[in-house]
Amino acid sequence: MKPQLGSFSLSFLLLTLLAAPSLAGGSSQEVYVEKIELESATRARIILKSAESQRDRSLGIRNCPKVEVWIDYRPHYTSRQTVTRSGHKEAIQYLQQASDRGQVIRFGEMGTGLARRTETPSFASRILSLLNRLLGKNAIQENLSHKSQACQFKTRGIALLEEFDSKQAVYTFHGPI
């Protein structure tokens, strides 16, 4: 005899599965919003500092104890249901309030949440770099500049989401999810 699910049991199972959160695979951590510069309602630059204990601080976001993130609303087509313009603005306001209050928040990545930020050097900086290499000067300064750029990222959208423990977190979405 085969076990059969009653219509009530089947309906309950389907409703439970459909009601479950559909986003998975992201991770977040506690950070301070050290600084936020608003360019517009949908564009900002933030500096985040890990709020994890000293022992865990080396992990940080992408192995950086402090990161700089350029935020712009240009969501990938696969994340447009999650990263709406109004939700993006709400998340920026949340970051601003956290910065003003000095409060710890949760910040995380979903999918490819952050992308390395690369800048095209200006003509003057390329000439200066060439002269430095030819003259063998400022090698240390160039090395320090390169290291700081390693902790600079960009994202195409953020959203304020509720985590499993009912706490809010700002999640960043750069590419497909």
Features:
177 residues; OB fold (Dihydrolipoamide Acetyltransferase, E2P); alpha+beta; 8-stranded mixed beta sheet
Topology:
Elements lengths: L6 H13 L7 E12 L4 E8 L15 E7 L12 H17 L2 E6 L5 E2 L6 H13 L3 H11 L2 E4 L2 E5 L5 E5 L5
Parallel strand pairs: 3-6, 4-8
Antiparallel strand pairs: 1-2, 1-4, 2-3, 5-6, 7-8
Q: By helix and strand content, what is the structural category?
A: alpha+beta
Q: Summarize the amount of helix as a percent range.
A: 25-40%
Radius of gyration: 21 Å
Query: Tell me, what's the shape?
Result: globular
Described by strand count, sense and barrel closure, the largest sheet is: 8 strands, mixed
Spatial order of the strands in the main sheet? 5-6-3-2-1-4-8-7
User: Helix count, per DSSP?
Assistant: 4
Runs with pLDDT <50, length 5+? 12-23, 139-147
CATH architecture of one domain: Beta Barrel
Number of strands: 8
**Named CATH topology of one domain:** OB fold (Dihydrolipoamide Acetyltransferase, E2P)
Strand content: 25-35%
